[in-house]
Amino acid sequence: MAFVLLIYLARILGEADFGKYSFLISLTTLLATLTDLGVNQLLVREKVHMTDNDLYTADFPDRFH
Questions:
Q1: pLDDT at 22 over 90
Q2: d(CA 20, CA 15)
Q3: 44, 64 in Cβ contact below 8 A?
Q4: Which keywords does UniProt give here (predicted)?
Q5: Residue 37, SS3?
Q6: How far is CA 20 from CA 16, 31, 43, in A?
Q7: Cα 29 from chain centroid (whole Å)
């Protein structure tokens, strides 16, 4: 389905605009990958150290200072 959509977009947008679209999609993918930078591992590590009461407190974001 995605392949068909890309062909459709390429025909509708034309060469220059499809090139801009492709560049922006590539840049967005790269930046989205870089934004993680270990946040998942941090959250898992902090979750392991929490008690059940810590999960329901309002100061949850304060644990990451």
A1: yes
A2: 9
A3: no
A4: Membrane, Transmembrane, Transmembrane helix
A5: coil
A6: 6, 16, 36
A7: 8
Q: Which of 17, 18, 28 is nearest to 7 (CA)?
A: 18
- The more confidently predicted of residues 25 and 52 is 25
Contact 19, 27 (CB under 8 A): no
Q: Which two tokens stand for residue 41?
A: 């591992």
Contact yes or no for 10/19 (Cβ under 8 A) = no
The residue written with tokens 């008690």 in the block is: 51
d(CA 6, CA 25): 12
Copy the structure tokens of residue 34: 């870089």
Structure tokens at 36: 């993680």
Dump pLDDT digits (tens) for 25-37: 999 999 988 887 8
